[in-house]
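Reviewer 2 asked us to include a model.

Predict the structure of this chain.
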Amino acid sequence: MQGTSMSELYEYLTYRRDAEFIYDGTTYVIQPEISDKKSWLVIWMISDMPKCICKREIPPEGDIPKDIIDAVLSDKCFDGKSFVDIEKFVEVTVIY
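Predicted model (structure tokens):
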């Protein structure tokens, strides 16, 4: 991964920060958000029509548990591959 390390990414996500990254020419964002009166950790594919490709419920406040971050980063939402699988091809461009 370029732009940060996996351990730093976990730390950012734990503290509810957003991470924007590029994989195979497409921009994605991993972020906590609120919808349907619940809190979620999601991965969005950013394009003309943004698309949520992964979504896991998180506690409404406080740190995001490691097991939820693991589940999101292990979800095979990148054409049958997980973030863990593609990590070496990812460039983190912005941490919010």
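The helical segments are 6-14, 66-74, 83-86. The mean pLDDT is 97. We have added this to the supplementary material.
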